[in-house]
Amino acid sequence: MSGDHISTHVATLSKAGKASGKIKISRRVAATIGRPKAIYTQQSHGAQGEITKKYFLLVFLLVVPPLHAQTQGKMNHIAGIDFEKSDKKLNDVYKKIAATLDAAGKEKLIASESAWLVYRETQAEFEADYFARGGNMATLIYSEARARITDTRIKELKDALSVKE
Questions:
Q1: Neighbour-count burial for 49-73, b at 16+ CB within 10 Å, e otherwise
Q2: For residue range 45-87, what is the model confidence (pLDDT) as tens digits?
Q3: Rounded to whole angstroms, how far apart are CA atoms 70 and 55?
Q4: Could you give the CA distance from residue 23 to residue 161 in angstroms, rounded to a whole number?
Q5: pLDDT less than 70: residues of the chain
Q6: 15 and 61 both lie in a single domain
Q7: Quick one: which of 143, 108, 103, 104 has its CA closest to 127?
Q8: Which domain holds residue 60?
Q9: Within the chain, what is the greatest distance between any pair of CA atoms?
């Protein structure tokens, strides 16, 4: 292999012990993360490799530590904000599609949206219970599920609106 570059491929292990993803970071950073990792080292030589190593280390140190430094409360708060943004977008699309409908169409949209809201809440509650019953992550999972399901609904309504236009 060419160059002085030493890189470490880190694969986070899932509960089943299988690698769930790989990122390329320096050995020093891998040692400071403090999570269970499977580490594979590959050596190569050259000035370009050293520059790449320093650049990646800089990006990693600027981006990743804030993500790891968050408390569960902060992550729950951010997930709640993400849901609120999705919900606002949904309301905007809902208003646009409602404006294109006559009275009978609006009644059907209202009935559809009411049933969908029950589905969204019930599905989010199920996911939070299934993945984190009584645990600290239940709120995070609940908010993320609500945002994901809402984003799917936004796409559905936008698709319907684009056909009508």
A1: beebbeebeeebeeeeeeeeeeeee
A2: 455 555 666 556 556 555 555 555 478 888 899 999 999 999 9
A3: 24
A4: 40
A5: 1-69, 165
A6: yes
A7: 143
A8: 6-68
A9: 71
**Residue 6 has which token pair?**
């030493």
Distance of CA 12 to the CA centre of its chain: 17
Same domain, 101 and 130: yes
- pLDDT at position 66: 54
**Contact in structure between 142 and 82 (CB atoms under 8 Å):** no
pLDDT of residue 28: 46
Does one domain contain both 155 and 80? Answer: yes
Could you tell me the CA-to-CA distances from 65 to 62, 68, 154 in Å, in that order? 7, 5, 33
- DSSP per-residue codes, 104-159: HHHHHHHHHHHHHHHHHHHHHHHHHHHHHTTSTTHHHHHHHHHHHHHHHHHHHHHH
**Which residue's entry shows tokens 């589905």?**
119
